Amino acid sequence: MTPAVAAPQWRIGTDRRRAARTALAAGADLLHLDYGGAHRGTPLGEPAALREAAAIAGDIPVPVLAVNHVNDLGLAEERGTANPAALALLERAQDCALRLGAGVLHVPGFRRSTPATAGLRAGTADALRTLCERAASAGLVLAYESPLGHRDLLALARRVDHPALRLVLDTGNLRDAGEDPLAFAREAGAAGLLLPDLHVKDPAAGPAAPGSAFAELPALLARSAARSVLVENDYRGAGAARLPEDIRLCRAAAEPTRPEDPR
């Protein structure tokens, strides 16, 4: 089955309605929304913002709600426990995900949420365990990613030890960490931890050639049996024209290879 192609609202703009129109015009099948907060737009905890997002979900399916604001707060504390403010934010976000019909709550672990020390890793595991328990009771999957190498990330996931947890494969973030996305897909998949929604983008240093981020996608799809691919380059401002091109490249990479005509 050819995977669906998703667009990231937070990489298009903070105006969710406009981002949805842009995603639809570019040919996206799905839209991943961001919860908002700080410079990321009005939080979905605001009733009017949630009503607008629910209307958007009626126009284009929203399978994932990301909570990038947790990167501003910090998911864990150095003493090895979860950050209560982050847990409260993510509890509100979970309620919003249910309202939108999203099946996945995406929790990133970057900037202040990077588990860079032993204490922060212990606190991140504590936070993820609590979040997984809440997600499971609501019928949601909890998706997590961070700049850790894939072996450290798998060790963290095993420490959480909850069936609601899945790990995000993001080609750009993995390349930035010096990791091989295919190796990540193989090991996370074997552990039953791979989220079947891949993220594809250029590494921070930039691609070797236009569209090179999609070159490894056929092998990743064969390894992961993904149901969707999120194109996640920067589509704000002058980058807006790139979204339809990335969607086209994604679809081309996902097309099943046809055998050559022997005639």
From TrEMBL:
Domain Xylose isomerase-like TIM barrel residue range list: 23-202
Signal sequence, renumbered to the chain: none
Lineage: Bacteria, Bacillati, Actinomycetota, Actinomycetes, Kitasatosporales
Gene3D superfamilies in UniProt: Divalent-metal-dependent TIM barrel enzymes
InterPro entries listed in its UniProt record: IolE/XylAMocC-like, Xyl_isomerase-like_sf, Xyl_isomerase-like_TIM-brl
Superkingdom of origin organism: Bacteria
Organism, scientific name: Streptomyces globosus
Name of the protein described by the UniProt record: Epimerase
SUPFAM superfamilies hit by this protein: Xylose isomerase-like
